[in-house]
């Protein structure tokens, strides 16, 4: 199984990138392979000028085409998802997300900016062919903190929602009957009352 993450922030220290890295870590702990890409992996000139034929754009399309799932994160600026992310998405083929499970993640200054995820980003993902878009994970700036040393603090509510979304994504991309992470699955079974520990 192949999973790709697309970070829509140019900063590695952004809150949206921090949530995306945490989601990637959770997927890896379940035995899934994850490739991380973002704005920083495409030369600014190619993004600004929309160089569809550029080498970086071609590499991006190749990675996305082989992925079973795509996680996309963005900060919310001026009540919309980032222009940098839009520039990245513009380099993809018209139906690049067809047949893929997509998980959108966003951070913004207030709960009201959740609408940018629902009414701004999701329609663009649909235009790229995505038909299986999981419920997005949105967090306010106060719910995600990145320390100077790189440590990430995620409020419990956001952490639970992100972990639940990652669980649903993993269930979608793993063939039925495959155990992604034995300890994780046994823990879920125990919580569900399936057996005593």
Automatic annotation (TrEMBL):
Lineage, top-rank taxon, reads: Bacteria
Ordered alphabetically, the record's keywords are: Flavoprotein, FMN, Oxidoreductase
User: InterPro entries from the xrefs?
Assistant: Flavoprotein-like_sf (IPR029039), FMN_Rdtase-like_dom (IPR005025), NAD(P)H-dep_FMN_reductase (IPR051814), NADPH-dep_FMN_reduc_SsuE (IPR020048)
E.C. number(s) listed in UniProt: 1.5.1.38
Q: Outline the extent of the NADPH-dependent FMN reductase-like domain.
A: 1-143
Name the PANTHER family on file: FMN REDUCTASE (NADPH)
Q: Lineage in the entry?
A: Bacteria, Pseudomonadati, Pseudomonadota, Betaproteobacteria, Burkholderiales
Q: Tell me a GO biological process for this protein.
A: alkanesulfonate catabolic process
Family according to the record: Belongs to the SsuE family.
**GO MF annotations for this entry?**
FMN reductase (NADPH) activity
Instruction: Specify the protein name.
Output: FMN reductase (NADPH)
């Amino acid at each position: 199984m192949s999973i790709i993450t697309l970070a829509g922030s140019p900063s590695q220290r952004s809150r949206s990138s921090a949530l995306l890295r945490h989601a990637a870590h959770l997927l890896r702990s379940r035995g899934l392979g994850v490739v991380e890409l973002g704005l920083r992996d495409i030369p600014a000139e190619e993004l600004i000028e929309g160089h569809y034929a550029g080498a970086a754009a071609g590499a991006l399309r190749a990675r996305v085409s082989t992925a079973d799932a795509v996680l996309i994160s963005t900060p919310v600026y001026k009540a919309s998802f980032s222009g940098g992310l839009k520039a990245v998405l513009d380099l993809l083929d018209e139906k690049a997300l067809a047949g893929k499970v997509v998980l959108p993640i966003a951070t913004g200054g207030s709960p009201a900016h959740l609408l940018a995820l629902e009414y701004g980003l999701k329609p663009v993902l649909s235009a790229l062919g995505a038909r299986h878009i999981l419920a997005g994970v949105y967090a306010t700036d106060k719910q995600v903190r990145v320390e100077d040393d790189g440590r990430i603090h995620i409020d419990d509510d956001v952490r639970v929602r992100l972990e639940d979304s990652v669980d649903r994504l993993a269930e979608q991309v793993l063939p039925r009957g495959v155990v992604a992470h034995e300890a994780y699955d046994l823990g879920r079974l125990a919580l569900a009352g399936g057996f005593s520990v």
